[in-house]
Amino acid sequence: MLSTLKVVTALIFASIIIYFIWQNKSNTDNYSSSFSQFISLNGADEYVISVLKNGEKFKDHWARKIPGTGIPYASADAEITLVASYKYYIKLGELKYANEDETLVFNVPSLYLSTPVAFDSSTLDPSCDADLLGSCKGTLKNLNKEVSGKLEEKGNSYMGLVYETSAKALAKSFDSIARQSNEVAYNNIAVVFANEPGQPRHIFIFNKNDCGKEPCSLEAPIGNDGFLKTQ
């Protein structure tokens, strides 16, 4: 059973890669909404399964002080707002799987944040207030240099929000192709992320409908400016 499962899994992942290559040639405008496909080939084995979009605001304060006094005589306050797209992926080569009774269990060593984090340039809004001797140009330049690192920190801090949707996307992707073959028998698919606190088992029932008890697609608000979506 496991050897057959291995062959079918390899064929499934190969099919996903071929589908992505075809999509890449035929349409380059849909990546932002295709959250459970190969939408990144920055590495040879990046399967992006969740995207979290969120409005971010970064600030920086600059001040020049009178030597020996600590009293500022020039200052500037810079701010940058943008909408970032945090892409979370798994490495297909790291996947391990086992068939436990009627449940196909995927063990995923890690969910990763794709870096550098992308953002919509049309949403980029820099602003700055400075006194007579302050330098907005220099302050904004320094803040711009820090944005990439700040976005990576933010993306890693949000990872706890995307485990469930990531597990659902992986399970659905596998099932949508595996159901075309009768070689793999299962009623449920379980996904476990080794780097998720507590390592809960995300279980999806596939014997009655495509997505089990949960809706096929999920969209949840994150604060006032963001949303998390899988399909």
Descriptive report:
The protein is 27% helix and 35% strand. With 231 residues, it is α+β, with helices and mostly antiparallel strands. The protein has one domain (2-230). Strands 1, 2, 5, 6, 7, 10 and 11 form a 7-stranded antiparallel β-sheet that branches. Strands 3-4-8-9 form a 4-stranded mixed β-sheet, covered by helices on one side. β1 and β2 form a beta hairpin. The protein starts with a helix and ends with a strand.
Counting DSSP H or I runs of 4 or more residues, the number of helices is: 3
The helix/strand class is alpha+beta
- SS elements, strand count: 11
Q: Whole-number radius of gyration?
A: 22 Å
Helix content: 25-40%
- The mean pLDDT is 75
Sheet with the most strands, sense and barrel status: 7 strands, antiparallel
Kindly, what is the distance between the CA atoms of the first and last residues, rounded to a whole number of angstroms?
A: 30 Å
Strand content: 35-45%
Question: Number of folding domains?
Answer: 1
> Could you state the order of secondary-structure elements as H and E?
HEEEEEEEHHEEEE
Which regions are unreliable across 5 or more consecutive residues at pLDDT < 50?
Answer: 17-43, 208-231
| Shape call | elongated
Comma- or semicolon-separated keywords:
single chain, 231 residues, alpha+beta, 7-stranded antiparallel beta sheet, 4-stranded mixed beta sheet, 3 helices, elongated, disordered C terminus
Question: TL;DR?
Answer:
The protein is an alpha+beta fold and 231 residues long. The protein has helices at residues 2-26, 136-157, 163-178, and strands at residues 47-66, 71-90, 96-100, 103-108, 112-113, 118-119, 125-130, 188-193, 202-205, 218-222, 226-230.
